[in-house]
Amino acid sequence: MSNISIGIAERLINLFIAASFYQLYYFIYDDYRIFDIPSNAFIWILLILMTDFVWYWYHRLGHEVNFFWAAHIVHHHSEAFNFTTAARITTFQAIIRTGFWCILPFLGFHPSMVITMLLVHGAYSFFTHTQLVGKIKWLEYVFVTPSVHGVHHASDEKYLDKNFGDMFTFWDRLFGTFQSEEEKPKYGLTHPLKSYSFLWQHFHYYFEIFELYKRSKGFKAKFLAVFGSPAHMDQNIRPLLEKRFLQDKSTSNKRLRFRNYLYIQLAICILFLTVFTYSFETLTIADKVFVLSFILITLINCGALLEHRKWIYYLEYARIYIITSYFLYEENLIAFFLVPLLIMFCAEQLFSLGKRYRDVILQLET
């Protein structure tokens, strides 16, 4: 559920900014390209090699530089390794890797070729996030397999910072970062995240960098807090921040009794996102703001449900208010925007809906 929530958010926000990625590629290609690279079979082969080579260094730096790791760490939170793990991509990560891929149109590869190859590249990497396929020794000499990429997602010491390639393994072999699977990997972070919170998963490492930056003395130390290695991050910072911002997870061995409520919310988000994607160009600003707000609040709500947070009840009110305000706006009745608030306040006072909600929806089972 956590993996899918992050994937939904990335797809949603990228609808608003993906076009700017493509415009940037065309801007660089039209005004600054070094070579005029033609389109033929050999060039397509060269492009796929270059795409994976750029990915290798983007990916490696994403593990070796704090600022980049803050965007990429979300992809490694999951202690499972399956297709939903591939969805753990944040918009921050999408923006950073777009910056790296700008080198392709800069060299002279046409943006339409680059965009096509990035789609192929992304599709291939999706299928390497699974345990359904075991080791394929002969294939691993050239291609990244689920076993090879599973090693990259492992928290075992011997597997750390290995296998950065996305399609091909020869970059890792060339630069000394290849590791084949020996013992079965233990997936996730070396210091697991103690939260399913949608917001905390996205921003916790930025908080850690900021805390380290405040503690650091002198320009060099502050610079390394942002651009140094995650291996040198003070490991006492995250527990301190978790104590400051997160509740005590005393219910870690319990599950929601009404899990279907959670599943229904995610299903609604996926439905909204699908319709939103296909009709994005025809929608008004108000439509887009409504869908964006509704889905993001629902995703935050889902994370709160996974953690059994009692305050999610107020998010339910926020969602209702967003829906009613949108329909009032559509019917030119925005002058009555306070009416839904008044009705909700009266209903809460008369029927104690908050207590009923917590007693029913937040019931736990061992």
Automatic annotation (TrEMBL):
Q: Where are the transmembrane segments?
A: 12-29, 41-58, 261-279, 285-306, 334-353
Tell me where on the tree of life, at the top rank, the source sits: Bacteria
Where is it located? Answer: Endomembrane system
Q: What biological process terms from GO does the record include?
A: lipid biosynthetic process; membrane lipid metabolic process
All copies of the Fatty acid hydroxylase domain together span 44-177
Q: Output a single Gene Ontology CC term carried by this record.
A: membrane
The UniProt entry, under Pfam families, shows: FA_hydroxylase
Q: InterPro entries, from UniProt?
A: Fatty_acid_hydroxylase (IPR006694), Sterol_desaturase/TMEM195 (IPR051689)
This chain belongs to which protein, by name? Sterol desaturase
In which organism is this protein found? Flavobacterium seoulense
